[in-house]
Amino acid sequence: MTFPTTEQLSKYAKLAVRMGVNIQEGQALLINAPIEARDYVHHVVEEAYAAGAENVQVSWSDEVLTRKKYDHEPLSVLENVPDWQIDRVLSHAQDGGAVLNILAPNPDLLEGVDAERVAKANKARSEAMQDYKKYIINDKIQWSIVSVPTEKWAKKVFNTDNGDQAVQDLWEQIFSIVRVDQPDPIEAWKNHNETLFEIRDYLNNKQYDHLEYHSEYVDLTVKLPENHVWAGGGAVAETGASFNPNMPTEEVFTAPDYRGVNGTVKNTKPLNYNGNLIDDFELTFKDGQVVDVKAGKGEETFKHLLESDEGAKYLGEVALVPHSSPISQSDLVFFNTLYDENASCHLAIGSAYPTNVQDGEKMSDAELKDIGVNSSIIHEDFMVGSADLTVYGVTSTGDKEPIIEKGEWAIPR
């Protein structure tokens, strides 16, 4: 039997279209996908039209060509983002179109490429796309991210040379983790969202002053802004349409006060940053800023990342995930932030989501900065969760309550 089957691909496509971006009648859809995902994309496009989408466009990528570009193009070309590339995505967002990103990363794609070239190219693209990104981080439009296996990614995950078996095994893991293997994946996702909403609402009612992290890997205090907003599960676009930004998702998250982070953190899973692996790293924070960084692998890449702009050395997100999440229970490192971040409590350096403070989507960058919400051209998650992690919420009166205890939710449910 061919694996995955047509039925499985169709169910996954329906989940991405109906629950991920939740395409609306007459709405345009932009799909960003690698060429290896062609079969799945065909199902997504068919499902999008069945849901009433109009003007479905696919933007293909090819990792072989991407690598050749980094190897051979002059830096001046890598740093130049043509206006037509910006206009295409920006005009789509301005017209209210939805965006589905299909990720299939090769964790070793840019291994051996000069870290400075990668950093400068990424910085140029991030700066050029700032207006477009505001539609994403402010939930002005529906957007979602899903993943499909490729041979190189699957072989890395399972540490094997048997590509066919690795791809099949990774498909099985993905279908299980995103609930495609359940009789009604959409209903299963609705139930899952409700669980995350309950936790989100509890934390929002608490309005903790700050969080304390303690484990073998983390000794950190994180101040929270006044009127911060915890989010998790589904989101709601400006149009009122609900959507699920990340599939999978197991987190509830909010913005820290970027000025009030102190202590040290070590990663518990590798960070795959645009085809470069960063691992065995330790960050020291003082008054919010990263003042020291060490890494066993990819240290130069990480240092370039922290130099992207002024906000890159500060935190933009704190996210809580139980150690018993389905992704964690798989006992796999996916080398894919979409998956690894949902196996583990994590933090993000760089930009915060304005929606993580009350009325933040209506504020200017300057207004957000005044209340402690970080702004940057980057947003990179890194994993710090473990089975021995305890996270306390501390109230303005000094009361300390466990939120995560020994890796698991400790709040009343």
Automatic annotation (TrEMBL):
SUPFAM superfamilies per record: Thermophilic metalloprotease-like
Keyword terms of this UniProt record: Aminopeptidase, Hydrolase, Metal-binding, Metalloprotease, Protease
InterPro entries the record matches: M29_Exopeptidase, M29_N-terminal, Peptidase_M29
Broad enzyme group: hydrolase
Highest taxon listed in the record's lineage: Bacteria
Cofactor: Zn(2+); Mg(2+); Co(2+)
Record GO terms (molecular function): aminopeptidase activity
Keyword Metal-binding annotated: yes
PANTHER family (UniProt xref): AMINOPEPTIDASE, AMINOPEPTIDASE AMPS
Stated family: Belongs to the peptidase M29 family.
Protein name stated in the entry: Aminopeptidase
